[in-house]
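Thread: Newbie trying to understand structure tokens

Hi all, I'm a second-year student working on a class project, and my supervisor (Dr. K.) asked me to get a predicted structure for one chain before our next meeting. I've only ever worked with sequences, so writing a 3D structure as a token string is new to me. If someone could post the tokens and maybe explain what I'm looking at, I'd be very grateful. Here's the chain:
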Amino acid sequence: MTDTRAAVRSQLIPIEGDNLILPNTAIAEVIFYAEPEAILAAPGWLLGRLTWRDRSIALISFELACEQTKPVPDPRSKIVVINAIGGNPEINFFAIV
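---
Reply by user tm_fold:
Sure, no problem. This is what the structure looks like when written as tokens:
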């Protein structure tokens, strides 16, 4: 019998050359890729902003934040909307490609 009290239900999110594991509770929604609106003078990992459920949220590249190569999005790419836990009431969600 497996002890399920220690289990964390998670999702494997494919990123460029690897996988990112996120607990289910961190994921608000998975949506189709949409081109973000650019943000002037933003760091390279901040790809821009997109509208999700009438909210403007930041779209980041996890790969670039980890100083890896920039992934090339294709029409089949997905965006994962993440529940932010930083405590800032202005930033409830962000997204990764």
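A couple of things are worth pointing out once you decode it. The CA atoms of residues 82 and 94 lie 5 Å apart. Helices lie at 62-65. Feel free to ask follow-ups in this thread.
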